[in-house]
Amino acid sequence: MSQFGFHTEGLELVQQFHDQVKGRTFLITGPSKGGIGAETAISLAHGHPSTLILLGRSLDRIQPTIDTILSIDSSITTKFVPIDLSSLSSVRSAASMILNDPTISHIDVMINNAAIMATPYSLTPDGIESQLGANHIGHFLLTNLLMPKLLLTSSSPTAAALPHQQKRIINVSSVANLAGGGIRFHDPNYTLHPEEYTPFNAYGQSKTASILFTIALNNRLAGKAARSWSLNPGSIATSLGRTTTPEMRQDALTAVFGKGATEFPARKTLQQGCATTLRAALDPSLDDDKDPDAVYLNDCQVTTDPHWIDPRALDKASAEKLWALSEELVGEKFVW
């Protein structure tokens, strides 16, 4: 739908695809106040979903989002689930809470939104490079553990899926996938060569992983009335960039767009920033795209343009190799 683009706002998409929102259950990671996760949840509230499951580090950071949701529609069931995506034990605990909650019969759309960016080098408690751990591995484990409820449909006749409603798993990536140089399969955690670590290259690796995860998911979701998409939300002023300095931003510009680049893409508002996520989550026409490389959106449009996505992030062999590496890092194999 060519009318969607840079200036499209989240509320426009919720209004247009209201039948993909009303009465359905959405799960969103990282919906802290002032971020695109919160803006995504708040936009969805205008479409009157049945349930919004909000996962974050602390209730204090998520409560403003819950308050806004309930001010829009007090009938929406909002559930907060504590999670630290950099901790595998925390992810397992969060997944267990959701799986064992009898009031959550199923999940229609899962939006893996939470991220950290350009942090100093560190390892998670499980020995995984922190950005790869929080941005990809935590979501990889959470998604696989929740698959029993993601693949279930509602048992309520009043909330039964319409023929054009598919389950969706959305992995929020970034144009920074261009900075990662692909996945460092020989040394993903920089433990062999910590001197090679740079904050934005590691961030780029984690966001490349989000796209490759999407490809591997789609390989496994074939025939299951479910689809995964990844996306670049754009450049938005949020707390995600709180650790960056002007010097780091220039390094990022060079890492992403090459030497000689002088300007970042134009800034988006929060409403514009959540729009690509919402098109990926809601638009049923995306299911008509049979291109096997159709997994990534930029400015609300499916693209394989190398200006926005590194061709290495579309490599199917790398996607399967990353799946195997991710299983190794979490210590569990998944078949569903």
UniProtKB/TrEMBL annotation:
Domain of life: Eukaryota
Record-linked Gene3D superfamilies: NAD(P)-binding Rossmann-like Domain (3.40.50.720)
GO molecular function: oxidoreductase activity
Keywords from the named record: Oxidoreductase
InterPro entries found in the cross-reference section: NAD(P)-bd_dom_sf, SDR_fam
Name of a matching Pfam family: adh_short
Family as reported in the entry's similarity comment: Belongs to the short-chain dehydrogenases/reductases (SDR) family.
Name of the molecule in the record: Short-chain dehydrogenase
Originating species: Rhypophila decipiens
